[in-house]
Amino acid sequence: MNRIITIGREFGSGGREFGRRLAEALGFAYYDQEIISEIAKRISLSEQYVEAIVEHQPSFSFPIHIGRSFYPAVNPAFEQTMAVYQEQARIITQMAAKSNCVIVGRCADYILKEYRPFRIFIYADMESKIKRCREKGPEDEKLTDKELRQKITGIDKKRAKYYEVYTGHAWGDKLNFDLCINTTQTVIKEIVPAIARLFV
Amino acid sequence: MNRIITIGREFGSGGREFGRRLAEALGFAYYDQEIISEIAKRISLSEQYVEAIVEHQPSFSFPIHIGRSFYPAVNPAFEQTMAVYQEQARIITQMAAKSNCVIVGRCADYILKEYRPFRIFIYADMESKIKRCREKGPEDEKLTDKELRQKITGIDKKRAKYYEVYTGHAWGDKLNFDLCINTTQTVIKEIVPAIARLFV
């Protein structure tokens, strides 16, 4: 069975950087939310083209929803979100079956529980998350500290809700992880070699 | 400044074994609750002897309380507990000043916060804590699983209360630690070399 490492993370804690560096150190494949969403989108896009061609209908409603969301449903928005989740879950399972990998986000710890992944959670205190966001990119440049704090809290609230809806577990609860790493006082690239050693 | 590693732990999670092995791997001094209590007891014993001799009084009240508890107090039990805590805090600070060390329990993470210790928390799920307790010692042999679960929960409740009273922080909150390690699916001696690498 392939070696799977899943990473949950607070926004601004450096979870993606940690995941990327860990994958690189181990020579594992690396997948994160953006990659998984992009793949899901492309698959649904191509599936919808196929559908449109098969049924001789014009393609419609871009940006694309995935097939399942066109079924009649009591709550179409929920139905669509569920379908996206299921599609991503399918992709994540394929990734895990294909090779050793590090997967960041997307409830991969829960989706792959039968693979017994090593589950890492990356977190930090608010001050260092604000600092990291400011260093990382220009898009937060105009935000005050208060606004940035609200943004961080807001994104993590959404992550918590997403995780809880699909897994039934509390997001960030340490009992759902094998290792929780606080990056507050940490230079990420300095701790990666030690953590990588857990897997060799 | 010396390198200090503090370890908080749930009862039955293997925190002491982890601490001992980590200290051994790093060549650091190792202190835990029993050692600290023993030192505190011996110091208070000798201090009381001195006091008794100086004041020409017979020594009294063995097992010994520490000096401070003989002062008049509104709540003598609380006063005594506080005095024991303060005595242990003094000893822990001396240990940290003396050499690199690993200290298990006794709020050492909080007491030594000015030393910026690396703070580890060791935990596990209930099933594996029960298993570990059964493997460890004969004293729990006669307990049913239910009784053992109650014992574990009871000890951790006391630890949580002790920690919260003296530090004002929630016990086991991952934000108060740099690294939280779940030993549920772990052979402790196998992870120690990787974790030790964080400090070399």
This entry's quaternary arrangement is homodimer
What is the average per-residue confidence, as pLDDT of chain A, rounded to a whole number?
Answer: 85
Gross geometry of chain A: globular
Kindly identify the CATH topology of the domain at 4-40 and 98-195 in chain A. Rossmann fold
Distance between the termini of chain A: 15 Å
The topology string of helices and strands of chain A comes to: EHEHHEHEHHEH
CATH architecture of the domain at 4-40 and 98-195 in chain A: 3-Layer(aba) Sandwich
C-alpha-based Rg of chain A, rounded: 19 Å
Number of helices of chain A: 7
The greatest inter-chain interface is formed by:
A-B, 22 and 22 residues
Enumerate the strands of the largest sheet of chain A in spatial order, edge to edge or round the barrel.
2-3-1-4-5
| Low-confidence sequence ranges of chain A | 57-73
Largest sheet of chain A: 5 strands, parallel
Could you tell me the strand content of chain A as a percent range? 5-15%
CATH homologous group name of the domain at 4-40 and 98-195 in chain A:
P-loop containing nucleotide triphosphate hydrolases
CATH class of the domain at 4-40 and 98-195 in chain A: Alpha Beta
Q: What's the total number of strands of chain A?
A: 5
Query: What structural class do helix, strand and pairing data of chain A support?
Result: alpha/beta
Name the helicity range of chain A.
Answer: 40-55%
